[in-house]
Amino acid sequence: MTEPLAPGAVIGMLGGGQLGRMLSMAAARLGFRCHIFEPGAAPPAGQVAEAVTTAGYDDLDALRRFAEVVDVITYEFENIPTAALDVLEALRPIHPGRRALAVSQDRLTEKEFLRGLGLQTAPFAPVDDAAGLEAALAAIGTPAILKTRRLGYDGKGQTRLTAPGDAAEALAAMAGAPAILEGFVEFSHEVSVIAARGQDGAVACFDPGENVHRDGILATTTVPARLSHAQRTDAVLLAGRILNALDYVGVMGVELFVTRGGLIVNEIAPRVHNSGHWTQTGCVIDQFEQHIRAVAGWPLGDGQRHADVVMENLIGSDMDRVPELAAARDVALHLYGKAETRAGRKMGHANRIMRPG
Amino acid sequence: MTEPLAPGAVIGMLGGGQLGRMLSMAAARLGFRCHIFEPGAAPPAGQVAEAVTTAGYDDLDALRRFAEVVDVITYEFENIPTAALDVLEALRPIHPGRRALAVSQDRLTEKEFLRGLGLQTAPFAPVDDAAGLEAALAAIGTPAILKTRRLGYDGKGQTRLTAPGDAAEALAAMAGAPAILEGFVEFSHEVSVIAARGQDGAVACFDPGENVHRDGILATTTVPARLSHAQRTDAVLLAGRILNALDYVGVMGVELFVTRGGLIVNEIAPRVHNSGHWTQTGCVIDQFEQHIRAVAGWPLGDGQRHADVVMENLIGSDMDRVPELAAARDVALHLYGKAETRAGRKMGHANRIMRPG
């Protein structure tokens, strides 16, 4: 463990979307300055960061110059190319580290890692070609989902198979990319645990939130989630097991299916997570500050919740509801500064405080 | 009243200190972009704003260019020169408006304005010269404080007179500036009301906080303050009277002395106020967002408090306590990103949540 980063230090952030934006503001609260690295022009995080480098993740010179002017590097998304990581890691510490990225960048590696820890996952099988898909379907059955192993999010790169006859079309949709077939799990609801691990190995968890998706995108997260005491304990224990196994530093989102047979890990994200946005309104130290604290080698907040909260994503035309939400006395609005409203695009979120205290 | 400002609009901010910094972050939460105008290099607010103009308030061309690229103008301090206001006001709306600035830039005008509303103030008299000071001392007695009418804050530009014999020295300290002699008030404690008024004339008040000063600088603010129900009502009523009389738009800090004879107005500040920092931890919508909402023509938050909070300023070497404060589970830290720690300089604050709910 290195010395805690002193206020005034510069945190380098890969990715300039809304997560990077809220991380930048959390970093500023602790007196840190932020430098955003982002390929796209006018990133939302750039509006609240001290510096922005606009360059692609394949621009190794730009990455090198970026690393040289920051004190530590973190990221808001997990799909950072390996060559970029090689350049950055040679110059500055990156948190969370390579192992967490390797695991979460590949759905197959992730599932195998989770199974290796003794945790439950949906049934899965690798699919590299038609023969592999046939074998996978024989083992798992339908309905099932064929997903690219890498680079999928919010329902992209996924095809649902309702019968074995869908195989050819589904495989064609993968465009030759290595894939994984996942079976369906009968679950009553989905929850997620936002967990953090500090450089000293301390683990802190926020209360699990209950997630509702619409069109493959998170719509709402509600705390407290419907869970028994034993399920809450299990959720914390399994999150701790994952973080410790990865020697993880930072915040992780762990999505869980609640089933009669226990909690099943859906997926993990090595970063702050949409389902943790409620912590901005429900906790003294939110997930964004928690992540910055971990990355900076500071002590973690303990995750205590002081209110019930419903977080609602504002997607596309939900922006029309901003005047109404702004007038509600129990709603904290968070808008992301995106210039263009598009269908399916996350434009902001609203945290409704349900029962203070 | 104009149309509410749409997310994406640019808020121009005069002053780039910690208040401007926290206002910038609040504006960003609502999807606004911020442009800071500040004479000093590397302002704390610049770290979290989209744009910074570095120029003096006497640089009328720079002010004009600044005004032309923003949608509305506000400020973090009240001592904006008249010529600067003339240039800005001709181009864009400024909130709070000229009348509030005229009143609060001059201690004598302010006291006369408050008295005109039927509110209690400390005894006062204008002092322009030795004869004036003699007359003022005859009326008010000692101890008393001689203050410049303009441009004082945090105890600067003030001299205490313990006996009439101090008159010559005190007057010399004013260096010829118009002054005001203020008598002392016997008070049990000081409280402040952070009040807001929207463009629609709606008024909202946060719960009064109780202030403790050290060396003339605010040390702590505690909510709830020690006040009777009637005193709380009085505090809200008098704040409303002040805001309405000024046709005010924005947040104002109203400092009050609690005395046996009722509440006495110490001073008003036409901006967010140090004694309102606790709202970041105790309210869904804090004073910074409240101010931005008013300036942008949005509905105000209602000011409801959901926790007891003690706000402590971190001044100068208090920064040595950051590691300890960072490790406390009930403390939200806010550091201002100032490069240099100096004695008497506000470096940050810590909001300790005492009793959630």
TrEMBL record, chains A, B:
It is an enzyme of class 6 (ligase). Keywords: ATP-binding, Ligase, Lyase, Nucleotide-binding, Purine biosynthesis. It comes from the Bacteria. One of its GO terms (molecular function) is 5-(carboxyamino)imidazole ribonucleotide synthase activity. Pathway: Purine metabolism; IMP biosynthesis via de novo pathway; 5-amino-1-(5-phospho-D-ribosyl)imidazole-4-carboxylate from 5-amino-1-(5-phospho-D-ribosyl)imidazole (N5-CAIR route): step 1/2. Its EC number is 6.3.4.18. The keyword Nucleotide-binding applies. Catalyzes the ATP-dependent conversion of 5-aminoimidazole ribonucleotide (AIR) and HCO(3)- to N5-carboxyaminoimidazole ribonucleotide (N5-CAIR). Catalyzes the ATP-dependent conversion of 5-aminoimidazole ribonucleotide (AIR) and HCO(3)(-) to N5-carboxyaminoimidazole ribonucleotide (N5-CAIR). HAMAP family: PurK (MF_01928). This is N5-carboxyaminoimidazole ribonucleotide synthase. It comes from Dinoroseobacter shibae (strain DSM 16493 / NCIMB 14021 / DFL 12).
